[in-house]
């Protein structure tokens, strides 16, 4: 489902922009449709009120929790009393008038730890979302991926299908039923640039009705030129994350075989222009592979490439994947790389890949679930 389709359905039921806005806010923020002196049962048009339970049921079915893998625990399969995965309507969205905002969610701290969520879509396909510390959430934009990064499980079977914009937002709704979400990064399964219309629709809703600050919406890409053409034109301008992984063009072509063949220097210049226009630094993503992209020569080229740039270098230690021979560098080497760049004025930080403890690198949970079926 696309958000544009949902909006048209609401209009067909007599909804005006004010009605659309309130319903989309209630859905995306997991809160009541009621307002002071304006209860939903008298605010919404009658045709919309009558159809609302069916609409809510469809929205709820867009993304349901299949299983959860806490960072320091075991996978928990979410099963209802009938032995199937829980697709019962949300108690918050199953009413028109209610007690106000979902107070229970506000009791959860934004500092909760990491957990990977295996999410089942309405057609039984699966994607992954990740609850991150400090209210963060990583969402998927595709089932599978066409880029084919050699160190990533997500693209091992290629691209299976695109996610609709409502399915992307539904992952945020699912997470918000569990705890507060104040930042969304589009870094899960898939290349967002290959599903640009749906991702931009989701960003637009989350940055308006979804109540997420624009700089806290992070669009991740391998560097598709369409990103630099499209994002600056949107009403909501997200921050940008660029998956670089190496400064060597030939090596990058091997690591990211289906990424656009654009000179690395040009990618950085385009990203820098976007950063200066939005006021948000570009987050350069670098998955660390021992003996491949962790050399002193790479560090020297990073320092030259990013000198004076509005940039952050995120070093991400590789998560081991069955069947792949890649390894992460030692803890000492990773720390030394970040320290070297910081000394040279390049802000570098080490980001946990949020799955090492549960063998849950991006795509692994889905792959195990598919194999078990």
Describe this structure in words.
There is one protein chain. The chain is an alpha/beta fold and 373 residues long. It has 13 helices and 13 strands. It has helices spanning 3-12, 17-29, 40-43, 46-61, 103-106, 165-176, 196-206, 225-230, 249-255, 264-278, 296-306, 331-343, 364-372; strands spanning 63-70, 76-77, 115-121, 126-132, 136-138, 142-144, 159-162, 183-186, 217-221, 239-243, 282-288, 311-317, 348-350. Strands 2-1-3-4-5-8-9-10-11-12-13 form an 11-stranded mixed β-sheet. A hairpin with a 5-residue loop joins strand 1 (63-70) and strand 2 (76-77). The longest helix is centred in the first third of the chain and has 16 residues, at 46-61. The chain is elongated, with a radius of gyration of 21 Å. The model is unreliable at 76-84, 90-111 and 355-360 (pLDDT under 50).
Instruction: Please describe the biggest sheet, giving its number of strands, its sense, and whether it closes into a barrel.
Output: 11 strands, mixed
Shape by Cα distribution: elongated
Structural class: alpha/beta
**Termini Cα gap:** 26 Å
Q: What fraction of the residues are assigned to beta strands by DSSP?
A: 15-25%
Order of neighbouring strands in the sheet with most strands: 2-1-3-4-5-8-9-10-11-12-13
- Averaging pLDDT over every residue, what do you get? 86
Concise overview:
With 373 residues, the chain is α/β, with parallel strands linked by helices. The chain is 35% helix and 17% strand. A hairpin with a 4-residue loop joins β3 and β4.
